[in-house]
Amino acid sequence: MAKTLFERIADKEIPAVLLHEDEQCIAFADIDPQAPVHFLVVPRKPIPSLDHLEAGDEELVGHLFTVAKQVAKAQGLRKGYRAVFNCGEDAFQTVPHLHLHILGGRKMGWPPG
Ligand code: 5GP
To answer: Which of 21, 81, 86, 109 is the most exposed place for a label (fewest CB within 10 A)?
Structure first.
């Protein structure tokens, strides 16, 4: 099976501004930021989307949130941030490898578009 784009970033085949890495996940700056701070937290396991989570993935997903919080703090997001999983076509998921968006550094609108 061909590697996903984010597996290739995790394997350093494609450059990215890496903000965190461990055995389970990586975090890196989004190439097309939608806020002053915009990074992605991505499991090394190539789960296609939130819809594809299986029993046993709970700890991994919890770890993604813990890393998101730590990186958000390291990026200076003191006044809050938004955490988003786009899942599937209607949510405009464009990369079929689970990723948590963290956006901050400006006031967010609600509801999201
Ligand atoms: P999605 O639309 O699937 O929720 O989000 C995919 C995100 O990946 C987008 O925000 C897009 O800008 C980002 N992205 C796509 N290709 C690359 C890349 O090659 N490098 C980085 N750093 N981000 C990427």
So the answer is: 109
